[in-house]
Amino acid sequence: MKKKLVTVLLAASMLATMLAGCGSGNGGSGDKKADGSVYMLNFKPETDQAWQDLAATYTEQTGVPVTVVTAADGQYKTQLQSELAKKEAPTIFNIGSTADCAEYDKYIYDLKDSDIYKHLNDKSLALEYDGKIASVANCYECYGIIYNKAILENYCKNYPDAVIKSVDDIKDLDTLEKVATDINTNVDAINEACGTKLLEAFASSGLDDGSSWRFSGHLAGIELYYEFKDAGCDLTAGQDTIEGTYMDNYKRVWDMYTNTSGADKSTLDSGSLNAEAELGMEEAVFYQNGDWEYSAFADGNENGYTVAQDDLSMMPIYFGVDDENEGLAVGTENHWTVNAQADQKDIDATLEFLNWVVTSDEGRDAITNKMGLSAPFDTFTGDYASKNAFAAVASDLASEGKTSVAWSFNATPSVDDWRADFVAALTEYTERDGSWDDVSKTFVDQWSYYWKLSNE
Amino acid sequence: MEKSIRKYFWIFALPTMAAFTIGFIVPFLYGIFLSFCKFTTVTDWSWVGFQNYTRIFVVNGIVDKSFLHSIWYTALFTVVSVLIINLVSCGIAMALTKGIKGTNLFRTVFFLPNLIGGIVLSYVWLMIFNSILQNYSKTIVSSQWSAFWGLVIVVCWQQIGYMMIIYIAGIQNIPPELIEAAKIDGASSWQLIRYVTLPMLMPTITICTFLTLTNGFKLFDQNLALTGGNPGKMSQLLALNIYDTMYGTNGWQGVGQAKAVIFFILVALIALIQNKITTSKEVQD
């Protein structure tokens, strides 16, 4: 009897697993949709909740089902590849750069006649590929050197040997170098004179995978920008070979970052450094990163940082090339692409949804206030203009006549590979006294190597 | 009874076979097919023949050693970890079957690391390693060899407990009268191990070496979380190298797939040979 019971139980559990497999399949194809539906594969993990809420609101108002799935940080490409192969593929997905366009060409719907493209202020924020408007930027971001304005002002006022009179004196790399070196060398005297608790000038420049992109992507982007400008090629699409013309400037900035920081230069790749916290706890004055960091320093943020958000501001990454005219680096890796392989009714529903996002009150509120993004559409005015102080610096500088630096690193061929090689060389130089020539050589050689690979 | 089993066995085998086909055989064959294609997503492919296979070794007209590097790096890692894990776990198992006090406590403690997932475990060890190495101005990814020994330590720490349990079961299965007889015949404790315990333990050794060998070759989580392949790509084991090719290099999904096929053949071959060698040493009763 007992044996029989066991057999029955085993058989039941076996059947259950099989039925469960079929069950989920049925569920997906079971609800037949009369009209189109929207499926968005979201790129930014931090905006997930806001998108879920927005999707629910839209479904409530129009009855159109909207699914939002967010890929885990760093897993976007993995998930996109498997999701696109499914029958119910995403109708909206993110494309980072022109290089991505080549890879996903078959899935790219031409957005030329779409409403979101018409609403886009700055048409250069759309990616063009193969005669199509491949994708439209859904936010623009800027990066530069985030600095603690309050501490710097305090330093100018209360530290007798300060090398500058006011914060506005920092207008070029020379001055920035001087200030950073002075603060880092005399940190104890400054703490005493100003009542601060500084440990260093620049926050640590971690070379682990969680931080190295700031240098292999963003800082390298400045070098690439000046180089592409000289070459006269498209600033964000780049070209097949680079010369490394400004690698000496890169070295100067990099040396400043590492020499005026409290972090041990030989263990920068340990992964235990937290540069954001160093600025947040007012231990450091400078920190290279982007305006997406703004919300991390908000008052009452769960990080528990002591710094006041209003005390922070951003300056360009002075590169010693054209400091006088250089603004913040403005661009984006966030673009909406509509899946051309989806059913026409789904494409229509998707375009309508995106238009609703950028025109309705709910959509604009979510993007500006909940996600904290700066949206490049003409509908974002008044209450919906960006409240990000770093982004405001970008437009202030632009209106002063400075040129915003384009995101030239978007042109990087086989991004992950190229960055890995470059970071390895940079680590060798920084941690183990490798030669700078090797860094430059890797920078230049690997570029054309991977360019050739991805374009053959 | 016998007859009806023969007649109806396929009905009983069907559910499992169906699941196995859907979950394993079909994707496997499709994977082999894809290794001859250029593809972005698995439904969108174009045939390119052996191009993916040549690209593993020749890139841009230059011989590319990264895959070969990860093959021998993985092989070395596997050899070292198989040796350490089996020797140590067998030793602990022998000690813990002697009836010393607190045996159960020791067994539990040694087994515990196995209950922690590979990623979490590696992050914990990453912190331990780096805080120690900091004193010497080094990190775990300072060179491919520090990364190597880091991986060995983590994997050994994780797997020794598991293998120990299997060894304990094996040792307890040895009939006590055999040992008693050997003792009466005047065998020394070394002779006891060499001529009684070890031969009787051969089936267990087969299982344990098989498990550790394939685990070593397939290792991924710990590699990803502990070293991430750094410095450069020097500490990439095979699985991570394939993953990196698949998702890191633009348009190289097919090459990643081709590497995976080679990887499969390699692991299958080695596992078969190992199985053959150790099984031949087993004592038939």
From TrEMBL, chain A:
<keyword id="KW-0732">Signal</keyword>
<protein>
    <submittedName>
        <fullName>ABC transporter substrate-binding protein</fullName>
    </submittedName>
</protein>
<dbReference type="Pfam" id="PF13416">
    <property type="entry name" value="SBP_bac_8"/>
</dbReference>
<dbReference type="InterPro" id="IPR050490">
    <property type="entry name" value="Bact_solute-bd_prot1"/>
</dbReference>
<dbReference type="InterPro" id="IPR006059">
    <property type="entry name" value="SBP"/>
</dbReference>
<feature type="signal peptide">
    <location>
        <begin position="1"/>
        <end position="20"/>
    </location>
</feature>
UniProtKB/TrEMBL annotation, chain B:
<feature type="transmembrane region" description="Helical">
    <location>
        <begin position="148"/>
        <end position="171"/>
    </location>
</feature>
<dbReference type="Pfam" id="PF00528">
    <property type="entry name" value="BPD_transp_1"/>
</dbReference>
<feature type="domain" description="ABC transmembrane type-1">
    <location>
        <begin position="71"/>
        <end position="274"/>
    </location>
</feature>
<feature type="transmembrane region" description="Helical">
    <location>
        <begin position="12"/>
        <end position="36"/>
    </location>
</feature>
<feature type="transmembrane region" description="Helical">
    <location>
        <begin position="71"/>
        <end position="96"/>
    </location>
</feature>
<protein>
    <submittedName>
        <fullName>Sugar ABC transporter permease</fullName>
    </submittedName>
</protein>
<keyword id="KW-0812">Transmembrane</keyword>
<keyword id="KW-0813">Transport</keyword>
<feature type="transmembrane region" description="Helical">
    <location>
        <begin position="192"/>
        <end position="213"/>
    </location>
</feature>
<dbReference type="InterPro" id="IPR000515">
    <property type="entry name" value="MetI-like"/>
</dbReference>
<keyword id="KW-1133">Transmembrane helix</keyword>
<dbReference type="GO" id="GO:0055085">
    <property type="term" value="P:transmembrane transport"/>
</dbReference>
<dbReference type="InterPro" id="IPR035906">
    <property type="entry name" value="MetI-like_sf"/>
</dbReference>
<keyword id="KW-0472">Membrane</keyword>
<dbReference type="InterPro" id="IPR051393">
    <property type="entry name" value="ABC_transporter_permease"/>
</dbReference>
<dbReference type="GO" id="GO:0005886">
    <property type="term" value="C:plasma membrane"/>
</dbReference>
<feature type="transmembrane region" description="Helical">
    <location>
        <begin position="254"/>
        <end position="273"/>
    </location>
</feature>
<comment type="similarity">
    <text>Belongs to the binding-protein-dependent transport system permease family.</text>
</comment>
<keyword id="KW-1003">Cell membrane</keyword>
<feature type="transmembrane region" description="Helical">
    <location>
        <begin position="108"/>
        <end position="128"/>
    </location>
</feature>
